[in-house]
Please model this.
Amino acid sequence: MEEELRRKLRALEEGQAELRREVSRLMRTTERRDAGAQWRQSARPGAAFRTAAPSLLGRAGLSRRHHAMILQSLGQAVHVLDLQGKVLYWNRQAEHLYGYSASEAIGRNIADLLVDPRDTLALGAIIKDVFTGKCWRGKFPVIKKSGERFSVFADGTPLYDDDGTLVGLICLSANLRILRELIRSSPFVGHWNFTEE
Model:
């Protein structure tokens, strides 16, 4: 079970690296196409990925469509923010976790979308750290569309373009309660230290 968890974490890290590369490519494509308007106008998750040329990517020869399908199929919520904190990408799991469709989330400020005003300063500090090149991983309180307040385990990393210029932030997140339940049911629970609130 422990090896399975390690394998899944490695796969997530590899997927996150590929996500950074793909989003960087897409941001350059989008900038050339009306400064990101296609991201915001998209009513369907992943539609922004279909605007790119159908060339083959990566060593595996996966198409952009396959990359989009992978992002949509991840078991974690994935969202990408620009430097102003506006949502550029929102996958299906983010829709499920937070209750907002991609068309509702894309183009909105993440603080306005998911964060209680009391937690805005904390979010600002986290985003500021990520925008200085640091990665952030930890627990954060959010509010879903229904008004339910809960905590997520989030992993935020800076997003750079091919020239090394910071262009945004990628965040993977999961419901902390569900993660705790999964880990508690594991025979390797001693390797994790989750404190209760």
Observations:
- The chain has a mean pLDDT of 76.
